[in-house]
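RECORD TYPE: protein structure
NAME: DUF697 domain-containing protein
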Amino acid sequence: MTKDKKRNRIWYLIAFGVILLFLLILVSSVINVGERLRTISVYLEYGFYVLSVILVYFLIINPVRIILVSPAFSIETVMDKPSRRRYQTYKKVASNLMSRDDISQKEKEKLKNAMSEPEELQKTLNEIYNSTMKKLMNRVILKNAKTVLISTAISQNGRLDLFTVLVVNIKMIKELVVLCGFRPSYKNLAKLTINVFTTALIAEGLENVNINDLIPNSTANMLGEIPLIKPVMSSVAQGITNGLLTIRIGIVTRKFLFADSKELTRNDIRKGAFIESMKFLPILIKDSLVSLPQKFFDMFKKNKPEENVDL
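PREDICTED:
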């Protein structure tokens, strides 16, 4: 067995272990909630189990299935001469692009004219994916990062944050794969699996982070005098962190899809994803914080009658 095959096998084993761990956490959480519902009604418990199976299928299993059945492909440098096998894949991807409205009519015509020339088709695909498609993918990444930011900022439950981040990140990867018409290699999917689960665990752990540990005592004391500001700031900080990590996963996915076989190294991916995610961060915060004040207002408004009853 070659060194590359051994390395790939290690990635597969780690990814399998991560998936198994997630399934154990998921089953444990579902059973825990089901046992609580049993005290109300056995039928309610069974109904919850059925609902959980349906949600897991549509939110996790089906998106993963769509990713796995997509053809493996990467936008490679025009310096690499395409093989016959790659040429067939290029034509499938080009046909997929021309059948949708994601690119302009001019770009469709350019693809159509390049269909009979492997190198010209590869060059045209390279241009389209690194211009038009890259912009579309960035929009998908920002949209899902905004969902994660707002959801985890409002949520006050670490386990719920874990599942939210997992589901949204899987959905984002699925949308990027569907948009491109192909998926990364199995090795890179294994890496993405590990990244997604790690991000989800970070999201769960952030629930226990105290905002006082992140800011100076004088600032914390000043903020403590303002009603509700500290819990709101803590939740927003958690949301921003989760949103940033989601952006990073989206960028890594895009880089795997746009892989340059001569330049794609582990350090290049990490460095590039970090730099680019920091560029996206101001846009993410601006768009998300426009929606957050009303969300927080509604949340506390709903809780207000309950607080009066307790008093």
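COMMENT: The two ends are 69 Å apart (CA to CA).
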